[in-house]
Amino acid sequence: MTELTLAAKRTAQEWIDAHFDDLSAWHQHIWHLAEPAWREYESAAWYVDLLTRYGFDVEAGSAGMPTAFAAQWSNGPGPSLLSYAEYDAVPGNCQANELHQQPREGLTPEAPGHTDPHSVLGISTLAGLLATQHAMTMHEITGTLKYTGEPAEKMHGSKVVHGLRGYYDDVDAILSFHPFYMLPLCNTARWDTHCGAYYSKVYEFVCDRPETWQLTGAPGSPIPASHSAARAPGANVALMQMYTSSRVMQDAMLPSVGGWSLSDAILNSGQATADNLPARVARIQYSWRTPDVEMAEH
What we know:
About 30% of the residues lie in helices and about 20% in strands. By secondary structure, it is of the alpha/beta class. α1 packs across α4 and α2 packs antiparallel against α4 (about 120-140).
């Protein structure tokens, strides 16, 4: 078994070496697409097409998510291994291939760009997947390889949905890949709080029936929508109260002293209008990491 394992590893490494130029070109393709969360249409389609050509059975739009996918290849009965690709870019990080800050040609600095970069995280796991498939075929190793496309990682996106829909149920192991820049920790797994439990929640504020606000304040006014009349505060006010309160209290929270992190993002606020009408809806997303699940849930 040891000799077979070593031989299979060599075969997999040889496949990677032989396809180095392809892997580099694939990464550049995803990097230049730079599609943001939940809108990675071309990136997901590229993965689906390539995996299909390599003999995988691929479900596009898995779990009802248009930019997700689930692929599977089997070489007979045996253990099942799952890995995954991330490919979402981050708005405001558009960068050309230059040593100074400069957006890619034809785009603004506010356009999406890859930060971690997820472009190479996905291609790296894809390389491992296809190299493993080749080694299993060459050495007649039985088992099943599964591979999922995970959009919107930066928004705590598809992995939760895939998990709840059972896509991770029938696997013996899940292999993740995320290198670290700081030697010697780049090949280290910190089992206690490596990344921690990752939770997220979106809060929505709705200003319903704003026309009834202080309706009796000027009952004789011939212009009920007068610009000088009092108006409903609107959803933005409620959102800002929550945002400000959480920011003011953050120094007293565990994120400032422990293995926590708390992040927020305003997803929409009044649909980007500054009219005299109150904002009808506003949403803010909070994401937090904690050392364990129990802490995350409380």
